[in-house]
Specification:
Blueprint lengths: L1 H5 L3 H4 L2 H33 L22
Length: about 70
Amino acid sequence: MYQEHFGSSRVYGRLNAVATLLLWLYPTGAAIFSGGEANSEIEKAAAEAGHPDVRGAGEQRSGGEGTSNQ
C-alpha cells in the first residue's frame, strides 16, 4: 500500500525500501514480544497449577553451558 501511494513521488520514492522494511519490522517485533509474553503467562499459570514439567520461580534450566556436575 505504501509503495503504491508514494511510489511515484521523487522525494518518497527513494525511501520506499527503508519505509517498507520499517513497516515490516514493526509488526514482526510486536508479534515476537507478544508471543514471548503469552508464553511467559502460560508457563506461570502451569506452575501455579502444579504441573510437574514446569520450573518453579528462580529455578534454572538444567544442562547447557555454565552448569557444574559436581
